[in-house]
Each structure stands twice: as C-alpha cells, then as structure tokens.
Amino acid sequence: MTPDSLELASLLCSRLCHDMLSPVGALTNGLELLADEKDPEMRQKCFELLEQSARISADKLRFFRLAFGAAGGFGDMVPLAEARQLIDALVGNNGRIQANWALAGDSLPKPAVKTLLNLALIGIEALVRGGTLDIAAELRTDGARPSSEIVIRATGARVVFDRTIGLALEGQLPAEELSSRTAPAAMLRGLVDMLGGTLQYHAAPEALVMGAMLPVAA
After folding, report:
1. Which residues contact 126 (CB under 8 A, 6 or more apart)?
2. Which of 8, 38, 39, 195 is 20 to 30 A from 181, alpha carbon to alpha carbon?
3. How far is CA 105 from CA 140, 161, 170, in A?
4. DSSP 178
5. Angle between helices 40-67 and 80-94 (to 10 degrees)
6. Phi and psi of 94, rounded to 5°?
7. Cβ atoms of 114 and 67 closer than 8 Å
8. What sign does the CA torsion over 135, 164, 179, 212 have?
9. How many other β-carbons are positioned within 10 Å of the β-carbon of residue 165?
10. Are 119 and 152 in contact (CB under 8 A)?
11. What is the pTM of this model?
12. What is the pLDDT of residue 22?
C-alpha cells in the first residue's frame, strides 16, 4: 500500500466519522435528557429523538459500508433495490430533496453501485436548498464488452458544487490537497481509472450532471 492510498483511506475514515458525529451526538443528548426528564410527554419526545437519531445513524452506516467499504455481504453483483433503498434513506432524512429513478435491470456490478452511491452523495450535497435528484443506471450489453452506465442529475434553485470536488473527479487534485470532503471523489476517480472507464460532469448554477461508463471486469 502506497502512502497516498493510506492517506486516502484515512481521509475516507475521517469523512465517515464527520458524517456520523451529528446523529450519534443526538443519541447521546437524547439519553441525557431522558435520564433527567420525569414528564411523560417530554419523555415521549426524547424517545422520538432517540428513534430518529438511531435510524439516521443506521442509514448512514449502511450507505458508507457499500459506498466506501468492501461490503463483504454482497457478491460481484449488487441488487439495484439495495442501492435505491440506501439513497432514498439519505434523501428522506434530508427532507428537501425528491429522488426520481430510472433503473434498467435488477443488479449492477459492485464497482458500478459504489460509483452510483458516491455520485448520488455528491449530488445530494450540492442541493443546499433542496431540489430534485434524477438517477439512471443500466447494464448495457449491446457493445463489444458489457458496461455499466450511470447518470446523476441534481437540479434546484441553488446548486453548489465545490471546484475541488470537480478537480478530484478529474484526477487533477494534488494528493497533498486532498481532504475528507474531496476524498470520496478521489476514490471514485481511482476506481473508474482502474476499470478503464470514463467519468464526466457538468456544473451550472441550477444543475449538476454527472455520468460514468464502467466496463464490466472480465
């Protein structure tokens, strides 16, 4: 393992911890409130807070397990229903984004699903005021070699796309400038390059479109 890959792994772990801090912290706060609260109505609200925080924590852990990790519970092919469930959970917890799906087939190779999840995450985070997330994916077999095609479009009143994330997607962000925010995009670029695929994006004030084409490993 190279120093750069070790640093990327560390940054991905930092990103996961950063995203988990808020819901886990809410669990701690809810338990502290519950220990001191005697009013039945307030105790019920504490239980609702704990339930919500536990659900969000579980949703994020399941998402990052497949988006960043090895996801050993799956084989070479991952059901698209699993990817949809993971993204729908993040969108539902956000509350201001509507997800629209156009999926062809029942499953995709694991690298393609990882790509789908990470592009969707970038799209969700770009919709700072909410909006629509359109997600399309299919396994194409009409060419000389089967390939996974993925398209993500985020549209809203204000789409904020960090240029450093764009540089990481392009493979142009120097390793010393990587951060926990840009690490997922850098990982994605490396994955696409390893498979000999393509990765493109176009960012505008009210729309962000990202697409990937990944040959299926022999």
Report:
1. 154, 159, 160, 161, 208
2. 195
3. 10, 30, 29
4. -
5. 140
6. -70, -45
7. yes
8. positive
9. 23
10. yes
11. 0.89
12. 83
Structure tokens at 110: 């694991």
H-helix segments, the chain: 3-36, 40-67, 80-94, 110-126, 163-170, 183-195
Ordered DSSP codes for 38-75: --HHHHHHHHHHHHHHHHHHHHHHHHHHHHTS--TTS-
pLDDT (tens digit per residue) in 85-140? 999 998 987 779 999 999 998 999 999 999 999 999 999 999 999 999 999 999 98
Tokens 């819901």 belong to residue = 23
Helix (H) or strand (E) holding 95: none
For residue 182, give both structure tokens.
């840009």
Report how far Cα 48 is from the mean position of its chain's Cα atoms.
26
Measured in residues, the chain has a length of 218
Biggest distance spanned by C-alpha atoms of the chain? 68
Select from 107, 112, 140 the least CA-distant residue to 197.
Answer: 112
Q: Which residues contact 148 (CB under 8 A, 6 or more apart)?
A: 108, 109, 111, 112, 115, 137, 138, 139, 140, 212, 213, 214, 216
